Amino acid sequence: MANAEVFKSKITVYVVACWIVAAFGGLMFGYDIGISGGVTAMDDFLIKFFPKVHERKLHAKEDNYCKYDDQLLQLFTSSLYLAALVASFGASKACRIFGRKPTILVASLFFIGGVGFSALAEHKWMLILGRILFGIGVGFGNEAVPVFLSEIAPVQHRGAVNILFQLFVTIGILIAGVVNYFTSTLHPIGWRVSLAIAGIPGLVLFFGSMILTETPASLIERGKDTKGKAALKKIRGVDNVDDEYEEVKRACEIAKEVKQPFKKLMKRSSVPPLVIGIMLQIFQQMTGINAIMFYAPVLFQTMGFKNDASLLSAVITGTVNVASTFVSIYLVDKIGRRKLLLQACVQMFICQVSIGAILLTHLNTTGTMDKGLAVVVVVLVCLYVMCFAWSWGPLGWLIPSETFPLETRTSGFAFAVSSNMLMTFLVAQAFLSMLCHMRAFIFFFFSAWILVMGLFVVFLVPETKGVPIDSIVERVWKQHPVWKKFMDDDGPKNKEMV
Which of 340, 345, 292 is nearest to 316 (CA)? Predict the structure, then answer.
């Protein structure tokens, strides 16, 4: 079996440009995550679209945990992810039939359309329609970009290259925090400016996607062998790509035998990557990260920070998020995926339990928390965000993108993306209500999930560091003590090709 040392490659300016342009799909996703919480905390936005919420916010004696509890307000944030969930399956088909590059281009068009409706909204339906269009863009982008990055990356750098997607997500969150901090003083159009600025990375992705090369795997899978080999030479920066080309071609020949990949996913041999792909996405959200990143300004206001201070605190957490993602880029191909995931479980558990304990004992339903303790909570949030950013954030996208065989790669990753969007939708739609009813216990709720996640990694998540993407079945699944039982090629279920 070929190994990583056989596949020669050089890092060229062109291939780096391809990585960065594609990763702008992550920046769009991150900008939305970061912008939503700040916009929903702006008085001008609440007065125009959610006046009842604004009235509750003005009442000093209103319950600290419940003053933002409004289903329509939460729908503003969460509707995007419901749309993305549905769109991810169409994106999977587009990726397979038309290729990764056109799918990324389509994502940029939906992003731009969503920005237009959101920033110019005069009625709630325009606001929600903008979010839905943005959500379709997220569905297409989150499906195509991680697969694109994994397929064009050299095996020895695949982890770091794929994590560019998550790095740009964190950069988008940070930019959104900075934008919200400054636009919160622009009355009454600050929220419009915040939403409109999303058009800038959307345009970068649109024009930049035109310079992208299609991935060799996608070209060869669609019968364009000559173009596929030329693309492989272009992204590797060397002429001698025969060994890697033959391996990709073999994977494509197997893929061509599978006429209905979604049915293939129901086969016993598809269980390991499917279970891990779906569960990693569910666990990624059940860490509680998006509950914090969506509503960081709202959360900090709940603890007694003034509006400007809460937005500044969100900028601080965003900065930590970006900086910590570089740790993952550096370490993921050195120490591997499993160690990062397990270390983070320990650190996140301690942070979540500590935050819950402080809020439980020191934040009453009315009034504010002691400023010193509030600062401690912000520090704990930063420590929590830090370890998430070098583990479950990027690896939740990396591992599913590299563990599916080519014949089910786009359809399998569609299940992973849709699982992420479903859980993100549920968390975004439910968090403010959960905060109202569970109060500080919501952090203990997420802590319990982190324990389950750690056990899942210990027993079921294999190490994929340094394994060529089209050799995963032989070198990972068939060697794993649990999952190898699902890889019995002699079994009748696996002999049948749909």
Answer: 292
DSSP, residue by residue, 74-135: HHHHHHHHHHHHHHHHHHHHHHHHT-HHHHHHHHHHHHHHHHHHHHT--SHHHHHHHHHHHH
Task: Please identify which residue in the block is written with the tokens 């929600």.
Answer: 128
Enumerate residues 6+ apart whose C-beta is below 8 A from 241.
Answer: 7, 8, 229, 232, 233
For the stretch 180-214, pLDDT in tens is 889 988 999 999 999 999 999 999 999 999 989 99
Both tokens of 225, joined, read 């062998």
Contact criterion met (CB below 8 Å) for 321 and 169: no
pTM of the model: 0.77
Closest listed residue to residue 218, CA positions, set 137, 85, 392, 98: 98
- Domain ranges in the chain? 4-495
Superfamily for domain range 4-495: MFS general substrate transporter like domains (1.20.1250.20)
3-class SS at 174?
helix
**pLDDT tens string 129-162:** 998 999 999 999 988 998 899 889 888 888 889 8
Distances (CA, A) of 41 to 32, 53, 57, 74, 245: 14, 10, 10, 12, 52
Query: Could you tell me where the beta strands, DSSP code E, fall in 173-230?
Result: none
